[in-house]
Hints:
With 550 residues, this protein is of the alpha/beta class.
Amino acid sequence: MEAMTPAADAPRSSAISRRGLLTTTSLVGAAGLLDAHLAAATPSVTPTRGGVELVETASGWVRGRRTAGVSAFLGIPYGGPTGGANRFRPPTAPAPWRGVRDANRFGHIAPQPIPGARLDYTRLISWLDQPGGQDEDCLVLNVWTPRPGAARRPVLVSFHGGGFSTGSGNHQGFDGDPLARFGDVVVVTVNHRLGLLGFLHLADLGAPAEWASAGVNGMLDAVAALRWVRENIANFGGDPGNVTVFGQSGGGSKTSVLLAMPSAAGLVHRAAVQSGSTLTLANRESGTRNASRLLARLGLSTRRITELRDVPVEMLVAAQAGLEASTPPAQFTPVVDGVAIPRDPFSPTAPEVSRDVPMIISLTRDEATAFAADPELTEAGLLTAAGALAGADNAARVVAEYRDAYPQASPALLAARISTDSGVFVAARAQAERKAALGGAPAYLYLFTWPSPADPARWAATHGIDVALVFHNADAPITGDNAPRARQLADDLAGAWVRFARTGDPNGAGLPHWSPYAPDTRRTLVLGDTTTVESDPLRRFRLLWEELAG
Length: 550
């Protein structure tokens, strides 16, 4: 059987793993021996030889690399091409290939703008490090497994952050190796269409019928990835009947949306939403307005809408960036289209379709320090910021409440806490309460308060500080490059994730007893300088924002 040679759309990055665990050393000799073995064999997994691992998928064989007890398979296609004639169309199945496909390099990431704002934060989390190269044909995923074969390990599927417009599953913060090793689980990260290539609602502008799903295609990609997991993960040592979907920020939003999609029912058995509780989505009218603005920016009328297929992708990405930075900003996010997404994810209630899916829901104490435009904010600026969130008449009262609770905090940190509590905290609490009210599987809520050692006064417990820790990785600038407390928190969070993936209950060694969230007790795991469980830990501010909301 011939070895598959790199095609034009083959992954172009030479990056493999974040600790040098995988190499791009030529394995021609070993690969030839394995291909010869494969030609005479029929099993779905071949023995490891020289660090090379072969696994069969529904589309063909893939060659990964085994290092120090974990096998990695990178850039595996779970869908067909999404560029050219397939732009704005729903995902299709990957085309089968002959021979053995190399899976030692990351695949393409979705075309996306380069983040320019909040440069200090993007540098802190190395967000610009997205190996793989941008290309419209980006429906690929990565798998890390302790051992391919017959075992049935829990499967954890991560959807990346970056809202619905940036990021990838190739980012170093989502390296699945340490979590697979720590928990004896299979880890999957996913790339999918983003921005207007994944979420441009064209159905109400006279678009061709095959573009009817253009406003939700990025989420249909996510469902396609989960179907690939169901069909293929057993050969990688995973249990297709025990799949936990999770994500932070935009990944949490995607997880929230999946829980409301009928097409994802039965593909998600547990779910975790970190700093991404999403209650509502854009409606068709909003999506249509954004699409109309894009057409106008490109000089196209609705009569020429099919010409969108031929606009160079670089021009589309530039137009997206311009619209996102305009006033009012255009947001290319999933639309409640009434078909793939029939309702808002968690409004007014939790979705019945995922009643039996247990959840972990979380936030960090200082989410908004990541988005602060001015770390040297003045007291006057603080009042203005509070007024924008609470109304000008309530600004002084809100600032006084937070200043009383945090007398040593800078105006910038107070503004960040006001923003966090009025947005992310309100959404996380509402999601947990609505899930509890449904009366099905439980939800567990945690609050992360440990400040980043990178600059505790500025960043505090910022957005994303817990991401790498869930992957059992404390070796990042945001967590103090293996600070002792970070290592303990990595044990705590990764341990909770693994237990939750196995049983639906995160409780176990190292944690105080963590009860499911209930409106009468509001029990919350608090991860700070110590790990505790508290009832209603932000009660003062919960009551304040409930009152202001009327």
